[in-house]
């Protein structure tokens, strides 16, 4: 299983999430910074990181309130890809 750990300290807006997440996943250059793009890339297998995969985001208490409010939506994207297509990838907020 591949494991990626991201540190949310200093994240102030949703773009900070994607600035850390997309390179860690090995996203293609054309990948957009949004929830739909993450879902589509998970389902289509566009990330360079092999499955199974667990992405853990830690130190979220140090992130802005806006980021903390946004992260559960990203968890849902991973959960939906797993439930609908059996994609063996999870995102965990620690």
Kindly describe this structure:
- The chain is an alpha/beta fold and 94 residues long.
- It is 46% helix and 18% strand.
- The chain contains three helices and three strands.
- The chain has helices at 14-25, 35-44, 65-85, and strands at residues 2-7, 53-58, 89-93.
- It has a three-stranded parallel β-sheet with strand order 1-2-3.
- Strand 2, helix 3 (65-85) and strand 3 (89-93) form a beta-alpha-beta unit.
- The longest helix is centred in the last third of the chain and has 21 residues, at 65-85.
Helical region count? Answer: 3
Shape descriptor: globular
Radius of gyration from CA coordinates: 12 Å
N- to C-terminal separation? 18 Å
Please estimate the helix content. Answer: 40-55%
Portion in beta strands: 15-25%
Assign the structural class, choosing from mainly alpha, mainly beta, alpha/beta, alpha+beta, or little secondary structure: alpha/beta
Strand order within the widest beta sheet: 1-2-3
The count of strands amounts to 3
Which ranges are low-confidence, i.e. pLDDT below 50, for 5 or more consecutive residues?
none
Largest sheet: 3 strands, parallel
**Mean pLDDT, rounded to whole units?**
97
The oligomeric state is single chain
The ordered H/E elements are EHHEHE
């Amino acid at each position: 299983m591949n494991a990626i750990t991201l540190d949310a300290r200093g994240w102030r807006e949703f773009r900070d999430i994607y600035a850390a997440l997309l390179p860690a996943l090995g996203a293609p250059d054309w990948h957009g910074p949004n929830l739909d793009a993450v879902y589509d890339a998970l389902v289509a297998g566009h990330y360079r990181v092999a499955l199974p995969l667990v992405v853990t985001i830690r130190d979220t208490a140090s992130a802005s309130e806006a980021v903390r409010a946004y992260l559960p939506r990203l968890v849902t994207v991973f959960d939906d890809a797993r439930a609908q297509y059996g994609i063996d990838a999870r995102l965990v907020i620690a």
